[in-house]
TrEMBL record:
The keyword Cell membrane does not apply. GO terms for molecular function: zinc ion binding. Residues 20-60 form the RING-type domain. This is RING-type domain-containing protein. It comes from the Eukaryota. Keywords: Metal-binding, Zinc, Zinc-finger.
Amino acid sequence: MQIVKERIVSPSQIDDEYLCPICYHLLWKPVECQNCQRLFCKSCIDECLQEKPDACPLCRHYVEKRCSPMFYALLSKFKIECENKINGCEQVSTYETLERHQNAECQYKMKTCRGCEKNVLEKEFLQHERSCGQVKIECTRCKRVYKQKQKHEQMECLINMLDTSNKRGERLESKIEHLEQYVQELETTLHLYIVGGFGGGVVHDVSIASLPTSWDIIYDFNYGHVTTVDELRALRSRCKKQIIVGAIQGNSSNVLRIAAMGPSDILLLDSPLNEPTKFGNVNWYLTPNYSFGFAPACSTINCNCADYNERENSDNRLSWHLSGDGGYRAGVFKDLVHNTDWRKIIMAEK
């Protein structure tokens, strides 16, 4: 708060000791510099210290000290006009009561109307806003926002309430539909984990006929086919949450000799060489220019071009080249790069 000298009701000249040497107005909530013993408005000196910490504007080294009660008593003798005198306020307050009057009591403050945005005196503000046609009101029943000058008929209110209720119903139906779909997917996944044995990780000799009918083959090529990263990436848009990757021996067979299930985001992996990503009990990798495949989570991956590890879980590894050759291995069966009897299989939910 700044109090210019002209607002002080005094029969005599105001001495400089009552004025702040920073703003040159009447000291407001003053504090003292312990070194030079000069008084400043608390807000003025704080603003200066933000720019130059610990630097007094007068003696260059500021150490704050509380203003003496005696000086406060002298300030309390001043009578001060309200800052809203220009708006018609004739109140003259003591130094101690000025802040309360201007902040909470004065009816000559200007407030801005929420509707027309005109500045209106505090004492006229409520009446003005009640009559201002631009002020917006929210109906407590239908929640519609309208201007005061607009009519809001009972029938319109009922229609709005019905429309809101219908929209809530539609949103609820949509949530129920998504929930039912999620439950269905969860049941399918649970069935695969329990019946198909996929919950344990890598599985063997699983008949496709034993899987839920919602699962379909989306990738079926013999091991001599050259699989590319782009091929695998493109399959992601045809998948939901889970996929099955495996191998079938025999052109007419429908038995997955080796397979594993994991999230469809496996098809988007960009794995550093020999640094697989673990999903459940399976380590998955898709390393461009090297290979794509899986092994048990407890196993390390040993890729030169494809996973050739023979020391651990060799029967639970699948690896397809992504470097311009065909598939490489399906369990213990290796060097299948030109084989046309073994088939690469990827399955997804319809």
